[in-house]
Amino acid sequence: MDRIVFLGTSAGAPTRTRNVTSHCVLTRAGRVWMLDCGEGTQHRVLACDAVKPTRIDVILITHTHGDHLLGLPGLLSSLSLGGNRAKPVRVFGPVGVKRFLETAIEVTDAFLTYKLEITELTPGEARELGIIDGIKLSAHPLVHRVPCFGYVLEETVNEPRIDPAKAASIGVTGKLIGQLARGDPVTLADGTVVTFDQAENAMCSCTSGAMSPEMAVGRGHSTSTMTGAFAKAIEAKKLILTHFSSRYSDGKAGQADSEPAAFAATRETTSAAGSAEVTDIAGLVAEAQAACPDTEVVAASDFAIFTID
Ligand SMILES: [Zn+2]
Ligand SMILES: [Zn+2]
Fold first, then answer.
1. How far apart are CA 284 and CA 297, in angstroms?
2. CA-to-CA distance for 167 and 241, rounded, in angstroms?
3. How do residues 212-247 score in pLDDT, each as one tens digit?
4. Span 112-132, pLDDT tens digits
5. DSSP 154-181
6. What region holds the Metallo-beta-lactamase domain (predicted)?
7. 220 Cα: distance to centroid of ligand 1 (angstroms)
8. Which bin fits 174, alpha (ψ -120 to 50), beta or left (φ > 0)?
9. Burial category of 108 from C-beta neighbours within 10 Å (exposed 0-12, middle 13-18, buried 19 and up)
10. Domain-by-domain residue ranges, the chain?
11. Which of 9, 32, 298, 307 has the most Cβ atoms closer than 10 angstroms to its Cβ?
């Protein structure tokens, strides 16, 4: 994997600056694996030079909530207008995705000029999904209000991605670097065992912000603090926050882009009571950072690109 491109970083509904959920992994071969496809994602693709629609091979749907799925029929229809595709488009997602897509395609009289392969996942069951273009794919159930899956993408061709100078500084040189890159531990002359720590790689997680933990868990979401604690537990080098509730502003205007009156009332009440509840995304980053001091915490924004180390 090469880069992660965020196309939509809002949860539930779009805001003026953030579209609903979607992000893409760009492979080293230059192909695109999309994760989730909220409404309007194809407009984000059009505005993003890094994501070429003709290169989208795999679309992974975490769950069937609209902010993760409603953009897919439109995107798939438009792919038919972009010239002939030799490769199929493979869609993976929980049970319901096939019925939803087939109904949308049939009712709208869409005609796909390429092969669409839909694989549905059984709720609660982890599943190995094979190797596609050198990437081993597996799905793992997550806790949410509806059946939900996280996906693990593992490169089967382990290219050495170890900094030789850094390796040399701890006594790993020559062939031992390749051994480490293949995932095999290396024992140094003094008996020290060195492993290639996968947690060095950037990780990406979701948060819906620092609302009360009871409220977040009830909705099947994580708070900033919970996400930070998770990053600390796995010793992540980097934590990228995304999927922000639309009640949190980008901090530019000092208030949320879109904020129902009920939320505004809540905020006034809590601030009057002296609560430290944050109202912008910078505050969420600070809360997550406090829970994982050794991890670099950043907030994703639409069109942000992160290189995978
Ligand atoms: Zn969502
Ligand atoms: Zn959801």
1. 10
2. 30
3. 567 677 777 888 998 899 889 888 899 999 999 888
4. 999 999 999 999 999 999 999
5. EESS------HHHHHHTT--THHHHHHH
6. 35-244
7. 10
8. left
9. exposed
10. 1-157, 164-194
11. 9
- Residue 83: pLDDT band by 50, 70, 90 thresholds? confident
- In the structure encoding, which two tokens stand for residue 239, read together? 């934590």
Helix (H, G, I), strand (E, B) or coil at 272: helix
Q: What is the mean pLDDT of residues 92-99?
A: 98
Q: Say if CB 37 and CB 71 are below 8 A apart.
A: yes
Residue 253: what pLDDT? 40
Spatial contact of 50 and 70, defined as CB atoms under 8 Å apart: no
- Per the structure block, which two tokens stand in for 244? 């922000």
Q: Which CATH number fits domain 1-157: 3.30.420.10, 3.60.15.10, 3.40.1280.10, 3.40.50.1000?
A: 3.60.15.10
Separation of CA 66 and ligand 1 centre (Å): 8
Determine the distance separating the centroid of ligand 1 and the alpha carbon of 223, expressed in angstroms: 13
